[in-house]
């Protein structure tokens, strides 16, 4: 009997000891949970606040996207209007210069202060115009710029003729005569066009060179239309790419 008592006591100790430890562990865990709970609540509240802010930011970004799209459409519309107005202004400018001719090559000062008289006397002979041809110039002057230094290219004459037909006659005579020489100076004639239109027409130069080499008949018409006649068929092109 004496030997059994300690064994029972030991067994009770083994059975009751862990339970007490588990209870203490559970109490510790519950205490920790109670301490953590307020923090979890704060985190949830913080997350909810962040979500509200994100939703507000998304709405704001959506509004900004709409405003940006509207602004881009407005810019495209304004750009189109500016291009249209620029083209109209350029067209009006060139129509106002429709009867003008630009003449390059005459040395500075040969007009002796009277370009209209000088050109009226010189051009008929230079261009071999029919005797008695009246140029009917409204005015003539050098281009407005600082007088060039000796050795530099002289300023061109700009001539406004009263009749478009006279301008066409002068340019036709130039084409037929080819190279024009006046007292050792090469004289060139061009329509008086705006820089924008000159740039558009200049794009046709490589094409015109090829057409001349192949002896294909062509003509460049106002404002910038290349008309080609090949094998009896005439085709017009508005751009050099075409």
Automatic annotation (TrEMBL):
Q: Where is the signal peptide?
A: none
Residue ranges of the TM segments: none
Q: Does the keyword Coiled coil apply?
A: yes
Q: Which residues form a coiled coil?
A: 61-95
User: Which key words tag this protein in UniProt?
Assistant: Coiled coil
Q: What is this protein called?
A: L1 transposable element RRM domain-containing protein
Q: Which organism is it from?
A: Latimeria chalumnae (Coelacanth)
């Amino acid at each position: 009997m004496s030997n059994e008592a300690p064994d029972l006591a030991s067994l009770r100790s083994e059975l009751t000891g862990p339970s007490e430890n588990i209870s203490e562990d559970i109490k510790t865990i519950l205490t920790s949970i109670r301490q953590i709970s307020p923090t979890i609540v704060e985190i949830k509240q913080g997350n909810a606040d962040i979500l509200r802010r994100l939703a507000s930011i998304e709405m704001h970004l959506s509004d900004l996207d709409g405003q940006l799209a509207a602004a881009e459409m407005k810019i495209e519309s304004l750009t189109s209007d500016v291009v249209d107005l620029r083209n109209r202004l350029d067209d009006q400018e060139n129509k106002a210069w429709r009867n003008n001719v630009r003449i390059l090559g005459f040395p500075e000062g040969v007009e002796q202060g009277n370009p209209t008289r000088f050109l009226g006397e010189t051009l008929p002979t230079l261009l071999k115009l029919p005797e008695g041809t009246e140029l009917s110039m409204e005015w003539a002057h050098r281009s407005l710029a600082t007088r060039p230094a000796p050795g530099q290219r002289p300023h061109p004459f700009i001539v406004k003729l009263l009749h478009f037909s006279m301008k066409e006659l002068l340019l036709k005579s130039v084409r037929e005569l080819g190279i024009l020489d006046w007292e050792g100076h090469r004289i060139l004639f061009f329509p008086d066009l705006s820089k924008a239109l000159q740039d558009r027409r200049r794009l046709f130069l490589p094409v015109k060179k090829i057409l001349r080499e192949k002896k294909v008949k062509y003509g460049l018409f106002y404002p910038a239309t290349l008309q080609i006649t090949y094998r009896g068929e005439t085709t017009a092109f508005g751009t050099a790419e075409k």
